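This week, look over our next protein:
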Amino acid sequence: MGGGDYEAPADRPSRVRRPAPPIRLGPDLPAVNLAIRVRRPLDDRLADLIHALRADGVRTSKVELVEMLLWELPEDDQPALVRRLARFREWAPRGASAPLGRGESA
């Protein structure tokens, strides 16, 4: 790429994004304390999901399901994540949320 060939990100034609490869998590990785407080209906929903899975013979835990949800978060699609956050805030507001950036619309 020559000196005059640089295209600013906004000027580049859109390219198809390839999803980032999943993160491989070994069982021996150190754990950290992710202390979170969630509202009761979300905790109840998580407990109901665990009980339903156990009824089908699948053993899991709240920790494993939360780790799975974190693992599934997109690494390379921030606009989609902002839209999901805006939708969540619409349905489950939590007081004064921080702005989403560049205005509050998504």
Remarks:
- The mean pLDDT is 82.
- DSSP finds three helices and no strands in the chain.
- The two ends are 34 Å apart (CA to CA).
